[in-house]
Structure formats: structure tokens, C-alpha cells
Design a protein that fits this description.
Collagenase (Catalytic Domain), seven-stranded mixed beta sheet, 31 strands
Length: 602
């Protein structure tokens, strides 16, 4: 809704101080104008008795003025006494109203009368007496809005919808707030996306869209109709639409709420014909949205007509990547992974909650073809294989043809191997990575660029005023790792090292899922967002089990798997060591790279 910048001037009543006649009552009439517009009826004669009030019809004795762009409105009220030979002037009162406009009551007098009049401001189309802190109008101004309250006070206001969850401590510069400005309200996100325990065999308690502010708005079928035809996207529901949340606003006196009608959202198609619709009311601090056509969109949120914040996302159909899991059991309990098929299914479901923000889902392979003496379990797509101790216990993944991750694979299908342990105590690692479809010169890592505004993950310069305009962001991908004779083998391993006697089972499951997601994204050619140990260091590898005591500061960059970006510093899924309770985000430029993997369906 456009800003409603109207004021209403109403003349309410006149007190007769003197009737201006020698005998009897006076015959008063009034001439009034607001912003040059005549108000009331100058031909209406009122019986004026001294010490009495004359009530004016508010419908007739009022005027509404659109003050957008105006700096002054003149108000005039003149009294006249009608006589037989000539009318007597009883005096004129009035005022030059100036911006900022304010609701007020006035009482002005001459020798003969007192007139009471008021100024009301329109809030969402309604005139009346509004709370003094209610905002009347806003103007965009260098990353903030200059808002005027109905009491005429000017305040600086700002609203943000940061794409990274949890929101990093490092954010683009904000405008300078005048002294006395109210405090900020932050919605940085929870410390963990899976705070509730999950019983064995039960699905995770969190919906697919548990991570808000995703890089991808999924294309879904509209709700409320018949079931979509086969091959169509699933129907939009509260659990699968993209959830977009504002993450910061100031001052707190604005008191915005989740469904606040003062905050109005809209969708702007940016590139490729992308478009989306809102699932529920497009208003408030939190909205839900689903895609209708592929491309890129920008969501805009306005307050009193002024643009307060923007949010950029890609609109795509969710891609299903077919996968199978192999449990590699050695000859005894000391050389066997602990995860059961039911547990692995939970790991998969949790991993899919991380991946949904990128428009990806891992789906179990329904093809029951087996090799290498694999056996189908009660869950299709999850297999058991009896192996020698050396194939699953303290494996050395530096060997040229690692047996563990190529057992029972199908070409073109993602292959996960659950093993007992790795010699350097790694929790997991990608071992077979296809080349990205992006072209690159021999020996050169491929790269991908994102040029949108706001920048991906609000990398500096972000384009969020008062920061500088967004600059193109370039990200390096990792080069393929492929073994001779297996060109379509895409594989990784996961170890029993995740198990813990001190952590709750829900946290252990999330740790497994986090490793799966991180290493799987390596297979889709994503590098580390930051990396503390060069891969050439002794005992390196993926180093996901290292702690700050084992390595230099995690923010140092320069390892051969570093993707060249530093924002966000610790919240991205591809951070080299951070746990999944913090490293949850997948950003737009990473999604662009993911879509170039031969493992992801077009």
C-alpha cells in the first residue's frame, strides 16, 4: 500500500465571548479555509448567545489535505456578524501548519469568539487519535528511513533481512542513529536447528524448511487445489515453503510483530523470468513464499510506503540426487560401524534439512542391484557388506584406489560408505569428485561469479546502503578427484568417530548429518569457505575433527581447498571445522556452483 500522507483539519465548535450586538443575540457566520480550500458553509447563520457554544458539523467543517511533497498548509477561520446595513468583522485566526505534520488540538480566540479545531493524521487510511509513537510517514535515506510520528517527532529507522542463519556478528555498516534512538531488536537465530531429541526410528521433529532465509525459494504447486499431476512439484505447505524472516530493526519503539500489517512485502522478478507467490499474508516480520517460475527474485518490504529492506533468492525446482548407503562391517565388533539402517535413515533426513535451503534432496536408490557381496536391508537403498578389517578399520584414504568407497556403487549414483575409522581420525571425507560442468583451463580451478544485489551472504561491499554498491563475487571450485576405470563414481566415507558417550543422541545424529552434508558438497565441487590448515600440512586431509588447539586460527585462508571468500566467517556449512549447530548456511553463489555439478539433475 502506498504511503497515506494525508492530514485532516476539523473545526469543532465556537464559544461566543461577545455577540457584538447591543440588543439580543448575534447572528454569526464563519468563513474558513484549509490549504486554500473552502470549508463549511458561509451562508449558515448561527444564533450567537454570549457564554454559549456553537457546535459545528464535523462532516461539513473539515478538510482533508494530501501533504506528500508539501511543506506548509495554511488554516484560516474568520467570524462575521450579520447586520441590517453591513456585516461586522469579528476577527480572523489561523495557523501555518508546517512539516513534520503532527496531530494536535488548537484553541484560538479573538475579542468575540474562541474556535477549537484539530489536526488528525491518516494511519492506514484511518483518521483519529493515534498513539504518539505511531509512525505517520517515512522517507528512504541512506540505508534507513526517516520516519515522522504522529506527534511530529522524526526518528531514524532501519530494517534488515540477513540471508545467513544464524546471523554473523560481522554485518555491513549501518547508518548513524541520533542520540536517544531506541534500542535494536535482533533475531539472529537459534544456536541449533535441532534442539529436540529424536527417538530412534522417528522422523526429525523439524520440518524441511527449518532453516529460514534460504538461498532457494522452491517451486511448488499452489495450495488449495486438487493434487498436482504426476511430475509436478509438490503442493505448497507450511513445512516446505521458504520462510523469510527480518533479522534486525531499530528502534524498538516501532514494536513490529511477526504478522504486522504495517510491513508490506512484494515480489520483484530480477532475472530469468523468476517469480514467486506468498503463502499466507505478505506482511510482518516473517513471511512464507513459494516459487512459480524459475529464475531470480527480490523480495521487498515497505513501511508506510518506504522501502525498508530487500531479500534476494533463486527460484528453482528442488533437485533429487539419488544415493545409496553401504555399511561396511569388519569381522568383529571392534571393526564395525555402529550406525544401523534406521539410524542412517535419520542421518539422511537431518542432512536433507540442511540441503533444502539449496534446493537439494538426497533420495534413496530404489534399484536393488548389488555387487561386492552387498546385502539389501529392510530399508531400500541401504546395504550391508561384509569386508576385511583393513577395508573399514583405520583406513588410509591416501591410497590410489580406496576400496571402501567404491564397493557396491552404481555409476552416476551418490555412494556413501559407513566405516569404522580412518587412520588420522577423520570423521569423513569425499574421495571421488566429478569435474564441474564449468569450463576451466588445465590445472586451473574453475570459478563462478554472482553479480546480484544484495551480494551473496552480504559480502562486503554488500549493496545494502550505506555500504557501497555490491561488487561481483567470484568463488573458486575444487578440481575433480577421479580414479582410473571409475569415471562416474561419486563417493565419500563416514566414520564411527561421531559416536559420543557425553553428547545426547540427537546431537550425535546431527553431527553425522553435518559431515554428510559438508563432504557431499565437496563432491559437488564446493571448497571451504575458510580454511585454517593447508592441505599439504602433516596429517591434513579434510581436518574436520581438528580443534583450535590443533591448528592455527580458523579464519586464516589460503589452503588449497579455500573457495576464495570469507563471508560469512563461520556460519557457512563449508567452514572447515565449525559444528553444524553454527555452520548451517548455504549461500547463493554456492547454489549456482552446485547446479553445475553432473551429479545434480538439470
Amino acid at each position: 500500500m502506498p504511503a497515506d500522507e494525508r492530514i485532516k483539519v476539523t473545526f469543532h465548535r465556537v464559544f461566543v465571548r461577545s455577540d457584538a450586538d447591543w440588543f439580543g443575540s448575534g447572528d454569526f457566520y464563519f468563513i474558513a479555509s484549509v490549504d486554500g480550500q473552502s470549508v463549511g458553509n458561509r451562508r449558515q447563520i448561527f444564533d450567537a448567545n454570549e457564554g454559549r457554544w456553537i457546535d459545528l458539523d464535523p462532516m461539513r467543517w473539515s478538510a482533508i489535505v494530501d501533504v506528500s511533497g508539501k511543506q506548509r498548509v495554511e488554516v484560516r477561520f474568520q467570524g462575521m456578524d450579520e447586520d441590517l446595513f453591513f456585516d461586522e468583522d469579528l476577527g480572523t485566526v489561523g495557523r501555518g501548519l508546517r512539516a513534520p505534520w503532527a496531530q494536535r488540538d488548537y484553541s484560538q480566540k479573538t475579542k468575540y469568539f474562541i474556535v477549537e479545531w484539530s489536526v488528525e493524521l491518516a494511519i492506514e487510511g484511518a483518521f483519529g487519535r493515534h498513539p504518539p509513537d505511531e509512525v505517520f510517514a517515512c522517507r528512504e535515506n541512506l540505508g534507513s528511513c526517516i520516519c515522522t510520528t504522529v506527534s511530529g517527532t522524526r526518528i531514524v529507522a532501519r530494517l534488515e533481512c540477513h540471508p545467513v542463519r544464524p546471523v554473523p556478528a560481522s554485518v555491513p555498516p549501518r547508518p548513524v542513529f541520533p542520540p536517544g534512538t531506541g534500542a535494536a531488536v535482533n533475531n539472529r537465530g537459534n544456536a541449533t536447528i535441532f534442539p529436540s531429541p529424536i527417538a530412534v526410528g522417528d522422523p526429525p521433529l523439524s520440518p524441511l524448511n527449518v532453516i529460514s532465509n534460504p538461498s532457494v525459494i522452491p517451486i511448488l504447486s499452489p495450495p488449495g487445489g486438487a493434487a498436482p499431476p504426476a511430475g509436478s512439484p509438490p503442493t505448497a505447505t507450511p513445512g516446505n515453503v521458504a520462510r523469510i524472516e527480518c533479522t534486525y530493526y531499530r528502534p524498538d519503539t516501532l514494536a513490529f510483530t511477526d504478522g504486522d500489517p504495517r510491513l508490506e512485502w512484494s515480489v520483484v522478478s530480477v532475472a530469468g523470468g523468476g517469480n514467486a507467490r506468498f503463502f499466507g499474508p505478505p506482511q510482518g516480520l516473517k513471511v512464507s513464499v513459494y516459487g512459480t517460475s524459475a529464475g531470480e527474485v527480490r523480495l521487498e518490504v515497505r513501511f508506510r510506503g518506504a522501502l525498508m529492506a530487500t531479500y534476494r533468492a533463486l527460484v528453482i525446482r528442488v533437485r533429487a540426487v539419488v544415493c545409496r548407503f553401504n555399511i561396511l562391517n569388519g569381522p568383529n565388533a571392534q571393526s564395525q560401524p555402529s550406525a544401523t539402517p534406521a539410524e542412517i535413515l535419520l542421518h539422511l533426513e537431518i542432512a536433507n534439512r540442511y540441503l533444502y535451503q539449496a534446493g537439494l534432496q538426497l533420495v534413496l536408490d530404489t534399484n536393488v542391484t548389488v555387487k561386492n557381496n552387498a546385502h539389501v536391508t529392510s530399508i531400500p537403498g541401504i546395504f550391508r557388506i561384509g569386508v576385511s578389517k583393513g577395508t573399514t578399520w583405520r583406513i588410509d584414504d591416501a591410497v590410489a584406489d580406496l576400496r571402501a568407497t567404491r564397493l557396491n556403487y552404481r555409476p552416476g549414483v551418490m555412494n556413501f560408505a559407513y566405516i569404522h575409522s580412518q587412520v588420522s581420525r577423520n570423521l569423513g571425507a569425499a574421495t571421488d569428485i566429478p569435474p564441474s560442468n564449468l569450463a576451466a583451463a588445465p590445472g586451473v580451478r574453475p570459478a563462478i561469479t554472482d553479480t546480484g544485489t544484495p551480494s551473496t551472504s552480504w559480502a562486503i561491499p554488500s549493496g545494502i546502503s550505506p555500504d557501497l554498491p555490491a561488487a561481483p563475487q567470484s568463488m573458486q571450485l575444487i578440481t575433480p578427484i577421479q580414479r582410473t576405470g571409475h569415471p562416474r563414481l561419486y563417493a565419500m566415507y563416514v566414520t564411527k568417530g561421531h559416536d559420543s558417550a557425553t553428547q545426547p543422541i540427537a546431537q550425535v545424529r546431527q553431527n553425522y548429518a553435518n559431515t554428510i552434508v559438508h563432504e557431499f558438497l565437496h563432491i559437488l565441487n564446493l571448497g571451504h569457505r575458510v580454511e585454517g590448515v593447508p592441505e599439504t600440512s602433516p596429517g591434513a586431509g579434510d581436518q574436520r575433527d581438528m580443534t583450535a588447539a590443533d591448528a592455527p586460527a580458523a579464519l586464516s585462508a589460503g589452503g588449497i581447498f579455500w573457495d576464495g571468500l570469507l563471508q560469512p566467517p563461520g556460519e557457512n556449512v563449508m567452514h572447515w571445522v565449525n559444528p553444524g549447530t553454527l555452520a548451517q548456511d548455504i549461500d547463493i553463489i554456492q547454489v549456482r556452483a552446485i547446479l553445475q555439478s553432473p551429479l545434480v539433475p538439470p
